Every structure is written in C-alpha cells, then in structure tokens.
Amino acid sequence: MSLGNPYKAQNTPPQVVIVGGGCGGIETARALRDTPVQVILLDRVNHYLFQALLYQVAGGMLDAGDIAFPIREVLQKQKNVFVAQAEVTGVDKEKRCVYVSRRKHPVYYDYLILATGAQGSYFGHDEWAKFAPGLKTLRDGISLRSKILRAFERAELQENPESRPELFTFVLVGAGPTGCEMAGALAEMVRHTLKSDFRRFDPGLTRIILVDAAPRVLPSFSPDLSEKACIRLEKMGVEVRLGHAIEEIDAEGVIIGGERIRSLNVLWMAGVKASPAGQWLGVETDRAGRVKVAPDLTVPGYPEIFVVGDTALVIGKDGKPLPGVAQVAMQGGGYAGRTISGRVTGQSPLPPFKYFDKGNLATIGRNYAILESGKLKLAGFMANLVWALIHIYFLLQKEDRFVVFFKWAFNYITQRRSSRIIEEPVMCGNTLDDTKEK
Amino acid sequence: MSLGNPYKAQNTPPQVVIVGGGCGGIETARALRDTPVQVILLDRVNHYLFQALLYQVAGGMLDAGDIAFPIREVLQKQKNVFVAQAEVTGVDKEKRCVYVSRRKHPVYYDYLILATGAQGSYFGHDEWAKFAPGLKTLRDGISLRSKILRAFERAELQENPESRPELFTFVLVGAGPTGCEMAGALAEMVRHTLKSDFRRFDPGLTRIILVDAAPRVLPSFSPDLSEKACIRLEKMGVEVRLGHAIEEIDAEGVIIGGERIRSLNVLWMAGVKASPAGQWLGVETDRAGRVKVAPDLTVPGYPEIFVVGDTALVIGKDGKPLPGVAQVAMQGGGYAGRTISGRVTGQSPLPPFKYFDKGNLATIGRNYAILESGKLKLAGFMANLVWALIHIYFLLQKEDRFVVFFKWAFNYITQRRSSRIIEEPVMCGNTLDDTKEK
Fold first, then answer.
1. I need a labelling partner for B429 at 20 to 30 A (CA). Which of A74, B109, B215, B226 fits?
2. Contact list, A76 vs chain B (CB under 8 Å)
3. Is the pTM of this model over 0.95?
4. Structural domain of residue B175, as residue ranges?
C-alpha cells in the first residue's frame, strides 16, 4: 500500500480509494471484503454517524457516542481496509490520484468511490447560515442542543420572561423528515421534560413554528399520511405554516409571508446540496451539485470512478431523481463494491444499478410515526414501534443498540431526557446577556 | 426573589446565593431543602460533573452525558432553589452582592456560599498550559480524548511510524489519583482496545511515562499501597519516573532529570490551585489560593460568607490541610447549609466543622484498585469491585447508574471502548500533518 508514495509498487493488489465513511462508503468497503484489493477509506472525521437519529442528540435524548461509531472499529476485522482521517481537497482524473490537505503526496487509486454525502444549502442565501444553524454533522447536533437549552436558560434569567418572546420562539425551516421529527421532539421537551425545571419561565409558553414553501409536510409520503402527521404536529402545539417560503433570516428572526416573527432560535432543517465532489471531478452536475452518473454509477468516460449516495444524480424508474436517503447510499455503495469486485476477479459486468425502495418512515414525538412501504400505510403507535425496531437494527453495534433501547425506554417512561448537557461554559454563549431586558 | 433587582423586597425569605454547582454547592442546596430561604445557585455550566470519572471520558470508556447531569434536574424537586447559568466575576462583601458577567445588576445575598472548586496550576509556568492540557472540566475530558485518539490517527498515517516516537509517547505529569488512573486507562487502551484497529502502526509501541517530583505514586495512601500500585502500573507497561520535577515543557516534549523526551502528548495531571474566590473576597489565602476560613467555614469577620471544598483551607485534626477531594466538599457544603438553616430558624449554633475521612480509593486499569479506610487496606480485584460500587452509588441519577454499569460491564468483557469519537473534523486538528515525515 502506498499512501504517501507517488509510485505504486508493482505486483500489489489494485488500490480502491473510498472518500467518505457514511452509509455509502462503509457499504462499498464491506462489499469488497473478500476481494483481493487494497481499500483506503478517507474521511474528515473518525466516526460513522447514524444521521437518522441526529435530531435526538440535538433534542437531548441521546448522547453523541450513542449514534456515532469509530470507522476504524466498524471495519476492524476487514484486513484489506486502511482507514485514514483525512480531508480530501481534489481529484486528478488523469493521474488517478486524490489530493489530501496537509500531505505532500497525493493518494493514488485504481478505483475511486466518492461517497461524500450532502451539506446544508441556504438556497443562495449563505448569509442566513450564521442565524440558522443546520443539522448534518455530529458537531451540528451537539451545538444545536446547546443552542436550544441556552435559549431556556436565558428566558429563566429575565425578570419578566414573557416580554422576550424571541427567546422561546423556535422557527424550524423545512418540513421534511428532519424538520418534523425535530419539531415533535422539541414540543415534547417543552411540555414534559422541562415542565418543572424552571421557576420564573414557563416552558409551556414556547412557540414552535414549522415553516415550508411546499403545500404539505413530509412530501415524500402520500398526501393522506402527510395530512395525519400535520394534524399530529398541530395537536402537539406546533404551528405549521405551509406554502410560504422564508423571505429573510437575520439577527432578529425571520420574515415569512410578509410577517416578521421575532426569534433567536431559527433552525435550518431544509435544503441540502451535494458535497463538492462534482467540482473535484470537473464534470457535469445538476443544480444541487449532484454528479450525473452512468447507469452503473460511474462517471461517464471514467469507468474507474464511482459516485454514490447523496453526491450522485441517479434517475429512478419513475423518471425522478432518487432521494438523498440512507437506503439509496447503501444500495449504491454495495453495487459499486460488487462491480469492482467483479472486474478485479474477471467476472461479467453486473446489470445497471436498480434501487429497491423499502419504504419510508418518520416519527412525530414519542408515540406516533407514519410508515409507507409499497401499498402498506400505517400511522400511529404501531408505526412508531416499527420505526424504533428498524432504527435499532441499523445501529451498527450491539452495545449501542442496547444503550439506545434502554435510553428510549427510560425517556419514554419518565418523559425525562437523559442527555441535556451544554458542554461549553457560559462564556462561549451569551446566556446572561440581559442588556436588552425590558 | 430579586435576581436582577438591586433592592430586596421586604418580607421575602432570606436569600442564599451559592456559587458553584459541584459537590459542595449541591450539598449546601440540599441541606437547605426544608428551610424557608430562597436559594440561588449560580454556575458557569449547566451541569454537575462527576469528576472522579472524568478520566474515563478522556479514555473513551464513557460519554460526556454519563457523568454530567443538568443541575436544574438534580434540584428540580426542590422548589426553593433557583438555578442560573452565570459567570461570577466578583463579590462585594460590604454591599453583600455578587457580580455576574454581562448583567446590569448584581445579585444580592443574605448568605453566600463560595464552592467554586479548583483549577489547573502549572506551578508558575503558565506557558506550559498550551502544550500540556489538564483534566478539570467536561470540555477538558472531551478534548483530551480527541488529542489521544488523534495521536494514533497521525501515527497510522506515517509511512514509517517508528520514526516518529513523539506521536505515540505520552508523558503524564503528576502521579496522584488522576495521573495513575489515566495511565492505567491508557495502558489498557493501547494494549487491548486499539490492538487490531491499525494497519501500519502498532499501538503496542506506545510509551506511557508517568512523572512526579514526589518519591512515590498516590502519596495520599500508605507507602505499602503506593508501592503495590506502582508495581501494577509498571506491569502494565507504564514507565514510572519519581523524584524528578518537570524542568521544561515545549512543542517538542519535556525535559526531566536533564533528559529530553520527545512527546506531542504531554498531559497535565498535576497541581491544582483554588479558583479566584479568594481574590473576589480580598481576604487572606495560602499559596494555592485557598481562603483561610474560621472553624465554622465562614470568612473571618463575615459570618454570612461560607467557603467550602477545594476553595477553602481547612486544617484537619492531624494539623494538615484537608485534601481537595469530593468528600471534603460534600461534608463542608452540608455543614454550611445546616449552619444557615440553624441561624434562619433560630437554633443554637453547630459545633465547629469536623471532617470524617471515609477512606481513599484509586483504580489502576480495569481490574485492580487500592483502598484504604482507617486500618483497612485492600489491593486488587476486590478493591476494584468496591471502587465500582461506590462510584456507581455516587452517580446522582438512577438511569446513569444503569448505563454506566452496563458500559463498564461491556468494556470489561469485550475490552473495547464504547466512546471513541473525535467530535471535531480533521481540519481543527492536525492529524494529517506529515511535513515532518522522515
């Protein structure tokens, strides 16, 4: 293996470089388990993140370590994998190498898989980012938790909390799964968990406003399930405002439908754009930055380069692009791995990639979920049980499954939240800023 | 209650301000449970930290949320307590008020308890701080974990790891409980947990050097137990160097006994000094900054101000100052609370504070501990069981007890570590810096 060496030694196995240790990258590596190749997996962080539960870290139900696992450990037994914590900065398609920050030498590949996922997109308003943090990385989840808990700490310190509604008004932009799940978690937090924690401020005053330009919540579900989820959210006290795009986000709050809403807690649960893999490659992308790949997930003209998951634009059988969900990334990663394996071992090529949609799930608060799989539609407590089982199953490690199950059971029964720690001291935030106090 | 109001309303209960939500502060608040007073507890962070297990967060055995609990939740049921996340900046003994950063108004008190703990002290060499991080706050624990794991990530990325011993040489300064427990945890981590995780770098190469100017490790124990702990550490591969003070710490490593040791991983497990409470008060302190208190833990001349825990200098019956341990803080806090309660309800004063030493415990790795209580001395696996039981008992919340117990059992059986996440991406660190590669 020649990470730092510009020349590949002769008689070494083909070198497969995977960029990204998310669902797509991990599945690619696993599919190459028994293939005589050297896999090099590069990621900026040392952990695989189970993103579907990230909102629970933000909501104080789970700890960072419950939903993140060292990539090194996940692939520990697979001896043909070399894992490196590294920031990729570019790709040279002709020299077949990947550039990495702060390293003299590039990393050479025989096969390259780009599985770098997506990042937050503010629809051309990058200036909104500082007022409305998103929820993509583990750091985001921990920061968002601090932001939410600090808002209540600040409200408690006011002589007259009611006079500062911007402290306890939450605006969630985007009514997709993340936005709806976060809104449900927040609603329960203020109505149950925090109920007895404050002396001056009544957490029940909290306003949670869920905003989307689309005409319904959770548009990936059928309209009747969307409707049920929306009713459930409203029952829990969430104000759902559909059909209006956000016009402005600033230090005071947001403007929507011409109305200004004062809020210091604007959370960006909306649009994502692909990571810069398309720019690295210098190839054609769609407006969201996704790379237009061939039916076998390779980059046209470069059969040794695969793009999988949120970074790839793949057209499904209904003519629409496949959604940016974990299932697509996992299936794509597995397909890319099997394709490489077939080529290395001299088998006939696989048929084009076909996505099998196992269904859709979203949970609203602690005992309601909606589920849609083929013709099956389910809403309510049973769907929530299915949701919980599936998510626990997909946690990669046995121990985490157990801890998460226990914490959920505990949270469910006691209505408490086990993980309500603000890691930073007050000096980093502005909890005590009462200069605006009225 | 008048947090932000400079004038105390008439006919309101006496106001007790507690600064610090550690063992001392929490016990003071609890002792005032049934007393007709208004308690205001101020802390920079929103959590109580179980410091005795902080080294396990640094060592990747536990998560932040396992050993930290929201102060608000701990005191949730005690209705006469108001908790505020606030940074105290000074005290006015004559006006009887506490100044808080970024607030217009001070907080007035009838009784004041300063339980602000200790902070790292570099023996007059503050310039060492940036090379040798300490272990006092939750943030310290998380940062130290990242530093340790990053060192191995960097070693793995070298073409020839053996040529960069400074990457995997750890120097722990201070052979008290924190230093010894951390050394034991590190030794096990490299010999068991990380054994199969790397491809180029052999974690078994790691050097762990424990340094102290004192002639023996764990000087708070009797010499024979110290000796046993030392032998155990050496058996685990820790190099123990006693009787030599650190002469220099810089970007390259340390100098000790005239010898330079190259190390990028110097950890400060040594000296603490009291928090600046003595400066706030403008009263007499010892060299470590501890306030010289009267036998009833009050500040001479100010019977309404109590100082408890690491911030106070209290002389024990053996004529020596009481050590900076949790037991002293808890007993001091309870005593201060009961004294105030007695005064408010008009009872006769308590006898002077007397510390009852329940004993001393330290653990070395996963199945060895030493224990000393009165004439009882124990070393080995049984002492480790006692250690585990006592620490689980003192975790404040039922759920955390269960999770910690489960994680310990899991770590013990599998020799894995459940919490090996580096929260920040590589860009914040310098994992990939190979410019010095040889």
1. A74
2. 196-197
3. no
4. 126-270+360-421
